[in-house]
């Protein structure tokens, strides 16, 4: 009998909101295009695997491509000379075990994909987990506090050991996305002067006849400007990485006690029982709230109580046959990649 797959993502979705889990994993309803953070995170992962900022990403948005190429350039600059991992890209499918009887679930298996196994010194192994984030990753930040009980890391402990790697830590390898964005750059005339125009678009001059080079919102004057191009932005971003690499990249060894692992096994079993119960009764309750619904891709369906016909999904959505496409490798291999050159570090 084929068992249903539980991943860290699907488990987290169920905890966030059972109704969201129903749409996403029971029905397979997905937005036609992935959200930018997912696209960019996947592209960064591919680049880290290949250690190649030039060719590793496949993003059709020029700014997203420039950001990822620059992050990869910084990553390779910092870590490019490291020993390769013992194992890379390790998909796993392991039994979900009842912690009281030690028997495997007849309904579910646990699956996922670890980024790799690496030696952290002569005697110890760690599972490596590379992630992009918008969080503050400095020492003492909440980002690291959350890792203490992050289920994904505990799942990797269980999976690595099941696969025969007696790991003693997870090496959390974090890359922070830029908070800076393309800025406005004043246009210059042939003499190198900034151009100020009034409400009618006519150039503004000082009393001495020289061009005015500053705006005045009181008078309705504006500086003529353009948005920084992705390539210009990449150079500025890369300079910032070189100046403060610790702001953008951080690594920590995160460990688990045997008691933590046992607690997590019990949580997994409890959650699986909740899913079976929800399926049995066809009841997937909503977790309505600002934090749960604010970012939810199903909010316009769910909160307007629209009935979804899987044969005719709502505009902008598709029904996936495989609800865990992330386990199947690179989702972006079929997409066009713009030819793009990454900024380089001298
Ligand atoms: S809109 Fe809110 S209640 Fe509805 S599925 Fe999303 S998170 Fe759940």
Walk me through what this model shows.
By secondary structure, the protein is α+β, with helices and mostly antiparallel strands. The protein has helices spanning 8-16, 18-26, 36-50, 62-79, 142-147, 151-162, 230-243, 245-248, 258-281, 290-293, 299-302, and strands spanning 4-6, 29-31, 87-97, 104-119, 125-133, 169-176, 184-186, 196-197, 222-223, 225-227, 249-254, 317-319. Mean pLDDT is 89; it is low at 331-342. The site of iron/sulfur cluster has 13 residues, from helix 2, helix 10 and helix 11.
What key phrases describe this protein's structure?
alpha+beta; 34% helix; binds iron/sulfur cluster; six-stranded mixed sheet; 346 residues; two-stranded antiparallel sheet; single chain; Lambda Exonuclease, Chain A; 12 strands; globular
């Amino acid at each position: 009998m084929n068992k249903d797959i539980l991943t860290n993502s699907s488990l987290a979705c169920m905890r966030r909101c059972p109704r969201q889990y129903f749409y996403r994993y029971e029905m397979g309803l997905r937005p036609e295009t992935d959200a930018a953070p997912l696209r960019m995170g996947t592209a960064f992962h591919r680049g880290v695997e290949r250690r190649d900022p030039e060719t590793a990403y496949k993003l059709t948005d020029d700014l997203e491509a420039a950001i990822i190429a620059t992050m990869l350039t910084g990553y390779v600059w910092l870590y490019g000379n490291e020993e390769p991992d013992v194992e890379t890209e390790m998909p796993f499918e392991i039994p979900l075990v009842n912690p009281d009887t030690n028997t495997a679930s007849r309904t579910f298996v646990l699956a996922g994909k670890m980024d790799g196994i690496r030696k952290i010194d002569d005697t110890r192994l760690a599972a490596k987990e590379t992630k992009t984030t918008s969080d503050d990753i400095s020492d003492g930040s909440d980002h690291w506090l959350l890792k203490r009980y992050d289920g994904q890391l505990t799942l990797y402990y269980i999976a690595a050991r099941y696969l025969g790697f007696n790991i003693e830590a997870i090496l959390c390898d974090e890359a922070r996305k830029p908070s800076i964005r393309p800025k406005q750059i004043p246009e210059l005339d042939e003499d190198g002067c900034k151009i100020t125009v009034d409400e009618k678009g006519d150039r503004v001059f000082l009393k001495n006849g020289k061009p005015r080079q500053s705006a005045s919102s009181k008078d309705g004057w504006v500086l003529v400007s353009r948005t920084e191009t992705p390539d210009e932005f990449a150079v500025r971003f890369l300079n910032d990485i070189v100046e403060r690499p610790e702001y953008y990249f951080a690594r920590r060894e995160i460990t688990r006690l045997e008691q933590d692992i046992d607690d997590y096994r019990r949580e997994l079993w409890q959650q699986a029982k909740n899913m079976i119960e929800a399926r049995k009764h066809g009841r997937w309750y909503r977790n309505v709230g600002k934090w749960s619904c604010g970012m939810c891709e199903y909010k316009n369906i769910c909160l307007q109580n629209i009935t979804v016909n899987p044969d005719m999904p709502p505009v902008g959505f598709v029904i996936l046959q495989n609800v865990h496409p992330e386990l199947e490798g690179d989702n972006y291999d079929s997409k066009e990649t713009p030819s793009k050159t990454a900024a380089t570090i001298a």
